[in-house]
Amino acid sequence: MEEPTLPASLLFGTATAAYQIEGGVHEGGRGPSIWDTYCRTPGRVARGETGDVACDHYHRYGEDVALLADLGVDLYRFSVAWPRVQPTGKGRPNPEGLAFYDRLVDTVLGAGIEPVLTLYHWDLPQGLEDEGGWRVRDTAYRFAEYSRIVADRLGDRVNRWITLNEPFCSAFVGHAVGRHAPGTREGTPALAAAHHLLLAHGMATGELRAAAAGEVGITLNPDHFLPATDSEADRAAVDRARTLHNRVWFDPLFAGAYPDNEDEVWEGMADGSYRADGDLRIIGQPLDFLGVNFYRPIMLRDAPHAEADPAARTAVDIRTEQVPIEGVRHTTMGWPVVPATFADLLIDLDRRYPNLPPIFITENGSAEDDRPDETGRVRDTNRVEYLRDHLDALATAIDAGVDVRGYFVWSLLDNFEWAFGYDRRFGLVRVDYELLERHPKDSYHWYRDFLTSHRARRVQEFAAQREE
Ligand code: FCB
User: Fold this and answer.
1) How far is ligand 1, taken at its centre, from the CA of residue 368, in Å?
2) Across the chain, how many H-helices and E-strands are there?
3) Which run of H or E residues covers position 114?
4) Domain boundaries, given as residue ranges, for the chain
């Protein structure tokens, strides 16, 4: 089968996140995060699983970086656990925590790979949650301080910084759906959390600039919505969902405004009490890149309050309901595989927001029902097909003029998939959770071959350019 052809300058990597792989939660002076608390609350995470050990990356990072080196990636995206750096979320930094990331960054660089650092991938220090967490403005100030500590320590070696990962999930899955930590169903406080996350991003951006840390971006998970029918009601439902999922973030970041349809979407829930004059200016500072995570499209229909299933209702109820997409494969997450919608999303964002900075696809991948054969080999052809088809879609978007500079597979390793625990496997590398052994899957070998030929083209083009 033919492999996707992408611009030779496009950079490739894999992504992970601290709580999902590190383990060692009681080591190195790390304090508890909201995910430690959530995992310990009965009934929250499948089978009561936790990130206590995870992939034991805290001890085995050397082995993991060796896997990355062998894979041949340009970039490695990882996150720093705030509670390792500041165990209670404020005050003096914990030297052991910083030393861990220092070693990790040096090991990654030593392997000829560029580290891309995410400052916040959902593990808020529990100490800050106890004081209101993202519902209160003070947490944004604490995040700015934490960001400066990390920038001062690693800014001489890390050149690409992502402030937040998917603030949509922190704000709404965490405080409205209740399926992520802290696991509550609140209305206005969820909207306040969204605002404070944006503010935190803006303030951290200021600190990273002051520390001359390098390029700064944010990772969002914009969704691509399909109306269940062409009816006006379903199209209006998609508009509301687009505000909740996308515009809440994109409008302040890239258009200097809050969404103009808030009254219709929130029905009075957004009282704006959490906003202050000047916030938009802090939030909307120019960025060097935008991170986009993409997995699947969502089909929606209009679902007036009276019709919606109360059990599925969230505290930020925008009167929509998801509708299954028929006739396509679904991954073990239950997510429909429709690669063309990846291109549609990117092209649509590019047209809606003319001021978007260059894009990095900071996550894309699939959870599959991986089964090792008697030799331990995992023939994950579904994952290979998923990645290949999404890279093809990416090529379509780039051909249409979208400025994409890099792409990361989620994920290097099987890991702790939040409320689903360990049985949803996203890795290019299988993790045996009993022995903590790593076994590259067929997709790992496929990606390695793809990267080898991609790099060969890069070398050729570079040589050709020099001759010109
Ligand atoms: C994204 C998260 C990432 C991972 C993937 C499957 O929403 O950023 O941590 O769980 O989904």
Assistant:
1) 14
2) 16, 13
3) strand 114-120
4) 11-467
Percent of all residues in the chain with a pLDDT value above 90, rounded to a whole number: 92
Say how many C-beta atoms besides its own lie within 10 A of residue 321's C-beta: 17
- Element housing 153 (H / E): helix 138-154
Distances (CA, A) of 43 to 24, 40, 257, 334, 419: 23, 9, 39, 21, 10
Whether 293 lines ligand 1, by a CB cut-off of 6 Å, is yes
* H or E segment and range at residue 119: strand 114-120
Active site members: 166, 363
Query: Is the beta carbon of 223 within 6 A of some atom in ligand 1?
Result: no
CA of 136 to the centre of ligand 1 (A): 25
Q: The domain at 11-467 falls in which architecture? A: Alpha-Beta Barrel (3.20)
Probe residue for ligand 1, chosen from 16, 33, 166, 296 as the CB with the greatest number of ligand atoms within 8 Å:
166
Is residue 335 within 8 Å of 358, Cβ to Cβ? no
**pLDDT band with cut points at 50, 70 and 90 for residue 310:** low
| Nearest-5° Cα angle at 459, 457 to 460 | 65
Distance in Å, CA 166 to ligand 1 centroid = 8
Question: Is the shortest distance between the CB of 416 and ligand 1 below 6 Å?
Answer: no
Element (DSSP H or E) covering residue 362: strand 359-363
Backbone conformation region of residue 414, classed left if phi is above 0, alpha if psi is from -120 to 50, else beta: beta
Residues in the chain, how many? Answer: 468
**C-alpha to C-alpha distance for 245 and 418, rounded to whole angstroms:** 20
User: 3-state DSSP call for residue 73?
Assistant: coil
Q: Are 252 and 258 in contact (CB under 8 A)?
A: yes
Q: How many CB atoms lie within 10 A of CB 43?
A: 7
Q: Give tens-digit pLDDT for 91-125.
A: 999 999 999 999 999 999 999 999 999 999 999 99
Would you say the CB of residue 426 lies under 6 angstroms from ligand 1?
Answer: yes
Closest ligand 1 atom to residue 415 Cα is: 10
**Residue 370 beta carbon below 6 angstroms from any ligand 1 atom:** no
Between the CA of 307 and the centroid of ligand 1 the distance, in Å, is 30
Give the percent of the chain with pLDDT over 70. 98
